[in-house]
Write a structure and sequence with these properties.
Elements: H1 2-17, E1 41-43, E2 49-51, E3 58-62, H2 65-75, H3 82-85, E4 88-93, H4 99-110, E5 118-120, H5 123-130, E6 138-144, E7 147-154, H6 157-165
Parallel strand pairs: 3-4, 4-5
Antiparallel strand pairs: 1-2, 3-6, 6-7
Length: 168
């Protein structure tokens, strides 16, 4: 019986995390070249608020479970200061997951990471960031003094490494 409950719970987790529901119909896209991300404040996996620093050069967004796993798996192989060393912030969208799945599995799992994970925790907050983005890929936003200079998408750990470490 316990195995059945565990299997059902894991199945729900995978289905919920992979949900592609997009609630972006009536929102204005935030990830647009020329727009500013200055003042963006989000909570991390420990519920501590972070505001993007003025010297942030890149923001990496993972909107889907697979993209988040690529990022987190790579970051776990690096020093805790790796992202800050390159003036990079990492934002994961967990808004599609049901509250029970987030509170029982996702958020506790994120607390094991040594790197900071900023969270898009609610659909209404995530929607403007998701709008017009390829949410299955890792999105990299390049900033200059908080203003978006360019946006690109990547797919693999090797691309993630070279993107972070490049001095573009």
């Amino acid at each position: 019986m316990m195995k059945i409950i565990t299997a059902l719970t894991l199945a729900l987790l995978f289905v919920a995390c992979g949900a592609k529901e997009e609630n972006t119909q009536n929102v204005e896209a935030k990830l647009v070249v020329g727009k500013s991300l200055s003042g963006l404040t989000l909570q991390d996996q420990f519920e501590k608020e972070h505001t993007l620093k003025k010297n942030t050069k890149k923001v990496i967004f993972a909107f889907a479970k697979d993209a988040a796993h690529i990022c987190n798996d790579y970051f776990e192989t690096q020093e805790a200061s790796y992202l800050s060393q390159y003036n990079v912030e990492f934002i994961a969208d967990v808004s599609a997951a049901p509250s029970i799945i987030k509170s029982l599995f996702i958020l506790p799992g994120l607390k094991d990471f040594k790197h900071t994970v900023l969270l898009l925790n609610e659909k209404s907050v995530a929607a403007p960031f998701r709008k017009d983005m390829d949410t299955e890929k890792i999105t990299v936003v390049y900033l200059d003094d908080g203003k978006i200079k360019s946006i690109m998408t990547i797919n693999a750990k090797e691309e993630l490494k070279s993107t972070i470490e490049a001095t573009k």
